[in-house]
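Tutorial, part two.
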Amino acid sequence: PANSTAAAPAPQQSVRRLQTSLLLRVAALLAMAVIFGADVLHEHQVFAHEAVQPMPALPAHIGNFTLQRSWNEAPSGVLVYTWGEYAAPSVNGAPGPHVMLGISPQTIHDAEVCHLARGEDPTWHGQIVAATAGGPVELTAATYNNGAVQELEASTVCDNGACRQHSETSQHLTLIYARPHRGVPLQSDTTRPIPLMLKVESLDTLAPPSVMEPQLAATLTTFLKDANLLALTSPYGKR
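Running the prediction step on this input gives:
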């Protein structure tokens, strides 16, 4: 009598099916490697192109302050800030105060969040409105004391014809956490807000914040009165 049980597939058929499955998986992996490899290669090419394009030079003088040095803050090869350190003239042989000015190509960068992520709490936090050569500016400010220096950090965002504590490009508040991405050239967006930070330091770590903050803020406002922050940041959005 005929056997009603279905015949088992031949060994050769099972081997061919396995080979076909493996070939499809290898093909899929190769396709993914090509796609992601092309993206990584493109990013490296863009970054290499940007590396040979000099960033706009910081002015040699801002009022009575003279540029002492400039440098790029670029952890892992991603530019976060271009910095310039400015010094006031010496007084009776004593060196004048220094102010550090940083301009960021990253659209969103919150310095206080970075400090908090490192476990550094501000000793004072507030707002500063300062007169500048380009009109009044609003800054978010905080002081820190790490035992070696006591510093005031003040940040603002310049866009849409003014420098404020926030951007007016959008009326909505959005919190974004992301690694800085170097695949989008800065010069590709001419409407982006430009974050700017200023730092003033003191070696006096014993003075309380209620005493130190007004002193550091006075140096900052003296520096800013001859600075045009809109003119300083505009080249970063037009390259």
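The longest strand covers residues 150-159. In part three we will examine how such features are distributed along the chain.
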